[in-house]
Amino acid sequence: MPASASPTRITVLSGGVGGARFLQGLLHWSAARVEAGGTPAEVTVVANTADDMWVHGLKVCPDLDTVMYTLGGGIDAERGWGRVDETWHAVEELKAYGVEPTWFGLGDRDLATHLVRTQMLEAGYPLSAVTEALCRRWQPGVRLLPMTDDRVETHVAVPDDQAPSGQRVVHFQEYWIRLQAAVPALAVVPVGVEDATPGPGVVEAIEGADLVLLPPSNPIVSVGTILGVPGLGEAVRRTPAPVVGLSPIVGGRHVRGMAQQLLEARGIPVSAAGVGLHYGARPAGHLDGWLVDERDAAEVAALEDGGIRAAAVPLMMTDPVATAAMVQAAVDLAAPRG
Amino acid sequence: MPASASPTRITVLSGGVGGARFLQGLLHWSAARVEAGGTPAEVTVVANTADDMWVHGLKVCPDLDTVMYTLGGGIDAERGWGRVDETWHAVEELKAYGVEPTWFGLGDRDLATHLVRTQMLEAGYPLSAVTEALCRRWQPGVRLLPMTDDRVETHVAVPDDQAPSGQRVVHFQEYWIRLQAAVPALAVVPVGVEDATPGPGVVEAIEGADLVLLPPSNPIVSVGTILGVPGLGEAVRRTPAPVVGLSPIVGGRHVRGMAQQLLEARGIPVSAAGVGLHYGARPAGHLDGWLVDERDAAEVAALEDGGIRAAAVPLMMTDPVATAAMVQAAVDLAAPRG
Predict the structure, then answer these.
(1) What's the N-to-C CA distance of chain B in angstroms?
(2) CATH code, domain carrying B55
(3) What is the pTM of this model?
(4) Pair A327, A218 in one domain
(5) Minimal Cα–Cα distance from A15 to chain B, Å?
(6) Cβ–Cβ gap A97/B57 under 8 Å
(7) Domain assignment of residue A148, yes or no
(8) This protein's superkingdom (chains A, B) (predicted)?
(9) Does residue B147 fall inside a structural domain?
């Protein structure tokens, strides 16, 4: 792993809420470095698009939008997704029309983003160009790239007594929002991923980075899906940049989301070390370094045994200052002194 | 003109706001007849669809929606169009994205109607089937039929110093909303009308009616466009039912809208008689009877000279009771006693 004491070009593989909060911390870290006379980080975000869904004829990209709204100052910070000062009149009316799905939360302000995106997609622009256009308004302070311009949608098999096979398959959003991840995930399939190609600039952003970071996003349906895009996982395994990740599992539980359920579905131990070793040491795997929470300090040894440099630091993203300290720890782990 | 003292099957050719208010009066009139021991009217509305517009990827049908919302109890009564208790967050956001057109008012509640309609159209349903589906929610108390399932859009030529021809062509909605009908209409063209066919049930509703009514809607871009659909105007000229209209011009001015500007563009006198004679006496024209306002009583003679039975009554639709009296006057004119 080449040393990079002060990385400038930083590429982050991000999911939604957790990734967006991590990126806030990264930009805070960069701003602090600039204040101290250093150079600003040039951050490229490769975002998961497998949570995307066509709903009511509109293309909705939850992870891209969460990153864009969070960094652009439009997010509802408490909820973690969607727009601040949001109203829900259109979706109330869709329910009154009896139109399915009724469980998908489409705010009135948020709708505008999906209308612009859908119209541009239908005019022939790829998702990457649409995302760039939307970001011209939001100015998120990062270059935001969809992992792919191709359609990839994660589906989850869940138990269904009524089905002859005993199971049925639902869109990831339905598993997460309607079923609240409260039923077992029998299988998690990113439909279309094997035919997808990395979006424009994605491989270059990974290969040309000074540092690649895996934020504490969901290791199966967020980062895992990004790494599953043919050529993209390969770029992470081969990049000259160090690759450091942060555990979404703290004290044997996910901090937010439903990583736990999905790790169980894949037979992966629900622990900080379990996830780190699932990513694996480069070049066969995807990691050089892995940060675990202080509470999981005992797991550092297992990671080091697996060829992954590890350290235990506070991993709760309570605010941008705390998150910036996590970024610094990741930078330190990537380029150890001495 | 056959007598029809108590018409049951009443077919109305309607535009938006004026037509919808007239229909409220017609239903009020029908309810009063039921209270008096009579039969309810079976009202079919053939609505203008040439104001329709694709905007932000959505199919918007102003006249259909105004009739549906007005009779279904969802209208903003003061504004005359759109939904009551409406918010405008999506359209604010579209403006923030810099997406054109910014002048078209799309409320958040209203958006749901356009999302449902657009998705059904894109799934292959004709506009008539979509309208029927939307009306299942609104229960307007009339059978609401688009004049055609084909795309017809009225365009208006306006002066433009910058254009080599000295004029440019805008969608009717742009003329009406953005330009506020404040510039001369050099030409008014219902694009597509000559290739349109009447929607399902439209010709039958006209031929099978006991009475056909032309409410005080715009004689050029609302009723005029409906009559311009090949086969539909013919049905009005040939139906065994009497055809009676109500003047939108009172005292030499339109009561609401921009009939005046468009009549001038066509060289039609802006008067109650001018409009009645423009429709003309059947079978060459479209009318048996024409109601003018009391203020225009002096014009009755000119209409009678033109072969159109005419009467002067109060024509201001101030409330459903006043409008119901206009309906009764139209019924009386269709079937004169003795």
Answers:
(1) 13
(2) 1.10.8.240
(3) 0.94
(4) yes
(5) 24
(6) no
(7) no
(8) Bacteria
(9) no
- Considering only CB atoms, A108 lies closest to which of B87, B96, B97, namely B87
Cross-chain CB nearest to B115 (options A57, A86, A122): A57
**Average pLDDT value for chain B:** 95
pLDDT at B258: 84
**Tokens describing residue A73:** 């100052």
Q: How far is CA B85 from CA A42, A83, A90, A91, A175, in A?
A: 46, 21, 12, 15, 34
Phi, psi of A265, deg, nearest 5 = -60, -30
Say what the pLDDT of residue A186 is: 93
Among residues A3, A71, A54, which one has the least CA distance to residue A240?
Answer: A3
Question: Which of B110, B40, B28, B80 minimizes the C-alpha distance to B217?
Answer: B80
Together in a domain, A169 and A44:
no
Read off φ and ψ for residue A310, nearest 5 degrees: -135, 155
CB of A286 within 8 A of CB of A233?
A: yes
Contacts of A56 in chain B (CB under 8 A): 115-116, 119
Domain interval for residue B174:
153-191
User: A108–B96: do the CB atoms touch at under 8 Å?
Assistant: no
Does the distance separating the beta carbons of A90 and B109 come in below 8 Å?
Answer: yes
Question: Which CATH number covers residue A213?
Answer: 3.40.50.10680
pLDDT band of residue A188 (cuts 50, 70, 90) is very high
Q: Does B91 touch chain A (CB under 8 A)?
A: yes
| ipTM score above 0.90 | yes
Instruction: Report how far residue A321's alpha carbon sits from residue A329's, in angstroms, rounded to the nearest whole number.
Output: 13
